[in-house]
Design goal:
Distance between the termini: 33 Å
Strand content: over 45%
Helix content: under 10%
Shape: globular
Structural class: mainly beta
């Protein structure tokens, strides 16, 4: 389960379905099919949920349950919204020794690609247009990079 930043919405993530509940009234808002290994993140500002599953990412309007946009990708290991909700970063492995990083501007959708040496495991975004930190690798060979 994933709780929204304000604590008003709750995502139940099952093996094949994601369900959104409104905790104010306990009502079920919508459900959408997902793969067993889905990762989900609430946009901290906009009414959106990013769902990374089965070789792609989909952003869903959390009020209506409609798809805002979706894109096919290689398998994802990292998914993060910036604190201002304006950017979404996606990362994952690309071969055995490198990884990829896609940064989407949420309005309008645009993509900036970066190559990273090692599989991307975690992503952190700032709310400014400044640096993006990416951590990769396994202990003790963990690596981190700062993208601007």
């Amino acid at each position: 389960m994933v709780l929204s930043n304000g604590g008003r919405r709750l995502l139940g993530v099952g093996p094949q379905t994601m369900v959104l509940w409104d905790l104010a009234d306990g009502g079920r808002r919508f459900s959408t099919p997902i793969s067993a290994s889905a990762r989900v993140k609430f946009n901290p500002v906009l009414p959106e949920i990013a769902i990374a599953s089965g070789g792609g990412v989909k952003v869903v309007n959390s009020l209506l349950g409609t798809t805002v946009w979706e894109q096919a990708t290689a398998p994802l290991t990292g998914l993060a919204f910036s604190r201002d909700g304006q950017r979404l970063a996606l990362g994952g492995p690309s071969g055995q020794t490198s990884g990829f990083l896609h940064i989407h501007s949420m309005a309008p959708t645009s993509v900036s690609n970066r190559t990273f040496e090692g599989p991307v495991k975690e992503i952190a975004l700032t709310s400014a247009s400044g640096p993006l930190a990416v951590a990769a690798g396994h202990e003790p060979e963990a690596k981190a990079a700062l993208f601007r």
